[in-house]
Structure formats: C-alpha cells, structure tokens
Amino acid sequence: MSDADPATPVALFAGGGSGGHLSPALAVWERLRESTPSVRAIFACSERAIDARMLLAAETDFRPLPARPAALRPGGLVRFIDGFRRSRRQVRGWMRAEPIDVVLALGGFVAAPVVAAARDERVPVILLNLDDPPGRANRWIARRSDDVWSAIGLRGDPSFASRITGLPLRHCAVAGPERTAGVCRTQLGLAPDRLTLLVTGASQGAKSLNTLMEVIASRASKLLRGWQVLHLSGPRDETTLREHYAAAGIPARVIPFLDEMGLAWGAADVAISRAGANSVAEIVANAVPTLFLPYPYHRDQHQRNNARPLVDAAAARLETDRIEADANLTAIRPVLSEMLLSAPVRARLRRNLEALRGGDAAADVARGLLSRMRVAAGAASGD
Question: At residue 331, does pLDDT exceed 50?
C-alpha cells in the first residue's frame, strides 16, 4: 500500500466527524513536523464533508472510514455495527501494509474501530480525551489504551487520565500580536475600526444561535447599534441571516465556515459561542470576552463543564440555550447588553482571560507522542 521508508516514524491520528476532533490532531501534527520533519502522519477520519475540507486544506494523508455514530434504533444500530467492522478491517490492512508506531485517538465514533484494530495488531494507543465528563466512546477506548491523557481537567473522575495536557491549538486558531483587530477585520471584509460581535456555533454552526440572531436583528437591533457582526453560520441559514442583518441595517459578514479561526477571534470584541473544548481553549488563547450558550442536547452537558472554569474565574458569561429564539433573547438580553455597552466590563473579562493562558499544549502532546514513537521503534528493532 505504501512505499514509505519503514524506518520513518509514523503516527496514526484517529478522530473525525467534526472540527472539534480534527483541530487538536492537526495542532499536534503541526508541532511534530516542526520538531521532527521526518515524522509521517496518517489521519483516519469520517466520510463527512467537514473532514475532507479541513484535512485537504492542511495537506494531510487522510483516509475516510465508513464508521457511523452509535444508535439505539435498529437501522442505526445495524449501520453502526457494519461501519465498525468494515473500519476495523480497513485499518488492520493499513497496519499490516506499513509500520505504524503509535495511534493518537481523539475520541468519538471514528476512533473506536481504529483503536480496536490497533489492539489486534499490537500498536500502542494513547487516548487524548477532550470532554468532561468523558463520553461512552472514550471510556470504551480508555480501557483499550496504553495511556490516557486529557485536554481538560476532569472534576468528576480525576483518575481517568494520567496527565492533563491542555487543549492543543493550531497556529491558525490564534491571532497573535502581529494580527491586530483592524488587520483581522480588514482581511475578513469588515470595517477595521468598528466594534465587532462574533457569533459562532463551531464547525457545524448552531441552529439556535442562528435563529437567536435573526430575532435580535428583527426585534432588538438597537442592541447592536455601533457594532458589526461576524457570523459563522455553518452550512445552514447563511442566506436568511444575511437578509435579516441587511433588513435591520446591521453591518454583517456571514460565513458558513472559517479555517483560520484566529482571524475571527482577532477581529472580535465580544463573542457568542458554543462551549466545545476547542472553542473554549481558543477563547482563552485569544482573550475574547464571551457569552457561552452550550449545546443543549448533550445528556451530560459537558459543554457547560468546559465553560465553567472561565465563568468561575470571572472571565466569561454563561447562559442556558433555551432553543426557542424568543426565550433565548429574553434570557440573555441583560448579560449581552452589559457586554456590548460597557467597555470596562469587556476589559475586565479580557484581563481575566489573559490570566488563564497556559503553555503550548500542542507542543507538549507532540513531545509525549514522539517519545512513545521512539520507544515503539526501539522495541520493534530490539534495541
């Protein structure tokens, strides 16, 4: 299958289906290439369009698998089992065709069959958990892993992971000092000197955030007087949102998806966001005052847990997504008004976010991964 040099260390990244699983893997891969250019990487991902888009843009060797999310309904359960078995067979074929030193599993439905194949072929596995609490797939993977790391602290089960790494962030997820707000806004087609509200539902967008902003534009546009909006809508609602903003006279740029999130964070004075682990880490790294509306359908409400350390540090605001747009507007209006109207409030939130910044988690994970790859290579050679 491959003409690769068998002496070249190879890491297999397992995860996909959303930007939340792919972005940390890409961040670690960036640091691996910087420190050890000879390392190769393979990305086992899902067949969803978001995976191909992100991994093509990053110029990776990616291989979609027919894995499907677990489901309780008979048809969904059959598809899950069939996808798991076919994915496991495919990955075993890869591992027999070319040496793979280590698997870094990012969790979720794609990672599970890859980890099963790695166990079959005796390839070391490290799980990098991204959520608190870990989901069912990650608990299953953890029992089959050689080591478990977590990107975030686990309040309810601190013994689940052997180390807390922080969330690996790609270089393009951070604006950096050289990209000022004006520079970022100009690159995004926004007015460089106008206050900017960023609305983001992460890589898939968020329907309830989209409808909330439609209601604000149509019924409460005074909230946004003097502001412009950068709205990352996901694949739905792009045209409708543009029409609502235009009808209300609100300057806005609506984009379905943005690879370089550092531009968006760098442009923003305030954000309304989901609270996935990636989004939370990016908000801290870019110090953007944020009103979190966590995804409301998770049973374990792990996005609330992701946001909680920021809220406890007086570095962010947190509200419940009530799903219905009018209810959301009523609930968030006092908090959002304060954030939009008060420069001192925004400055205080930004300072508190800056105090939470840590080191380069991606580099730390890359170093740990590289040490495991060298150990595996030494064991294989008999050294």
Answer: yes
pLDDT higher than threshold 80 for residue 382: no
d(CA 51, CA 178): 29
Buried b (16+ CB within 10 A) or exposed e, 164-190: ebbbbbbebbbbeeebebeebbeebeb
Alpha-carbon distances of 253 from 225, 242, 256, rounded to whole Å: 16, 8, 10
Domains and their CATH numbers in the chain: 10-166+360-381 (3.40.50.2000), 175-355 (3.40.50.2000)
pTM, entire model: 0.90
Round to the nearest angstrom and report the end-to-end CA distance of the chain: 27
- 131 has pLDDT over 90: no
With b meaning 16 or more CB within 10 Å and e meaning fewer, what string describes 46-81? beeebbeebbeebebebebbebbebeeeeeeeebbe
Q: How far is CA 300 from CA 221, 294, 295, 338, in A?
A: 34, 12, 11, 30
Is the preceding peptide bond at 133 cis, omega within 30 degrees of 0?
yes
Strand partners, 16: none
Average pLDDT, the chain: 93
> Which residues have a Cβ under 8 Å from the Cβ of 296 and sit 6 or more positions away?
208, 320, 321, 322, 323
